Amino acid sequence: MPASRILVWDLPTRLFHWLLTVGLVVCFAFAEFSGEHSRWFAAHMLIGIVLGLMVVMRVVWGIAGSRYARFDSFLFSPLKVLSYVQGAFTAQGRQYVGHNPGSSYAIFAMLFLLGTAVVTGLMMSGGGEAAEELHAASSYALVAVVAVHIVGVVWYSVRHRENITLSMITGTKLGEPADAIPSSRPISALVFVALVGFVTASLFLNYDRSKGQTKFPFLNTAIPLGEVERAGEER
Ligand code: HEM
Ligand code: HEM
After folding, report:
1. How far is residue 235's CA from residue 230's CA, in Å, rounded to a whole number?
2. Is the CB of 29 under 6 A from ligand 1?
3. Among 210, 234, 196, 177, which residue's Cα sits nearest to residue 46?
4. At residue 235, does pLDDT exceed 50?
5. How big is the CA angle at 105 (ends 121 and 4), to the nearest 5 degrees?
6. Helices (DSSP H) in 175-219: which residue ranges?
7. Which of 92, 54, 85 has its CA nearest to residue 151?
């Protein structure tokens, strides 16, 4: 077992993880507790759009980011995943510096389901009724995968006696110095946070309840958030 702590997760990846976790919980809370016809429901849609932007940025980082954040570092064959999961229930099973084969598929599934929820949400708020069931299905499937993800993290932590949740905060893990990434990429992290903050603020500030729409900065396109009003008229 290697004894030194090395940098594995860059800062943009860690910020993405915890902002996504908090954002998703808030997004769900507004969907479940504010009621579709309440004025607070807009917060569900606006935060959902921000989560969509974050996923797009994570995909960019999955191609252009540092070693363990890049998708090619955690693309495993299904066979590898199967043998990993088998190993997870036996005494052996190796530790991974980056994402392990078990968590990799959960990560891709979460990103895909998040994307589906955002796209179908936007279709619905623009008046498309057909997307409604897919929106609910992808959102609840997402909850299921998140639950598996958290159980997997706890299981890994107990089995290897390594607090990987803390690693997602500090960025460091036990490993060989040669496997470390050279930088936590603070400038990219700053750009990420600034963009998320700016877009969140503009979506909320440009939200017009009477018109049922908001504006996305840069593109300056109006996003219809009309489902609330229409649904209100129906019932
Ligand atoms: C809404 C809840 C959550 C979502 C959507 C979520 C999503 C994700 C995603 C997308 C990744 C990949 C990170 C990346 O490379 O960008 C990840 C990794 C990780 N998450 Fe979460 N997460 C959630 C909650 C949690 C919680 C509550 C914990 C701690 C108990 C946790 C611990 C971790 C750890 C340790 C990793 C790295 C796993 C590995 O070694 O492969 N996550 N999570
Ligand atoms: C990660 C992003 C999102 C998640 C996880 C999510 C999740 C949910 C959930 C759980 C519901 C309740 C479904 C039900 O039980 O019927 C819901 C409803 C809804 N969401 Fe989202 N949502 C997201 C993004 C969005 C976005 C971006 C929009 C629009 C811009 C949106 C618009 C709506 C609307 C209009 C409803 C009411 C649908 C209905 O039940 O008639 N959502 N969402």
Report:
1. 9
2. no
3. 196
4. no
5. 120
6. 186-205
7. 85
Split into its structural domains, the chain has a count of 1
Contact 227, 124 (CB under 8 A): yes
Rounded to an integer, what distance in angstroms lies between the CA atom of residue 84 and that of residue 94? 8
Q: Which residues pair with 175 in a beta bridge?
A: 4
C-beta 31 within 6 A of ligand 1: no
Distance 23 CA to ligand 1 centre (A): 13
Q: In the structure, what pLDDT confidence band is assigned to residue 227 with cuts at 50, 70 and 90?
A: low
User: pLDDT tens, 109-135?
Assistant: 999 999 999 999 999 988 878 899 999
* Paired tokens of 194: 């600034």
Burial 202-229 (b: 16+ CB within 10 A, else e): ebeebbeeeebbbbeeeeeeebebebbe
Token pair, residue 108, equals: 């891709």
Among 107, 133, 127, smallest CA distance to 212 is for 127
Q: Give the residue whose CA is nearest to atom 15 of ligand 1.
A: 69
Q: How far is the CA of 57 from the centre of ligand 2 (A)?
A: 21
Domain of 225?
4-234
Q: Is the pLDDT score of 230 beyond 60?
A: no
Ligand 2 atom at shortest distance from the alpha carbon of 140: 10
| Residue 8: φ, ψ to 5° | -120, -50
In this structure, what CATH number is given to the domain that contains residue 201?
Answer: 1.20.950
Q: Given a cut of 70, is residue 174 above it in pLDDT?
A: yes
Length of the chain: 235
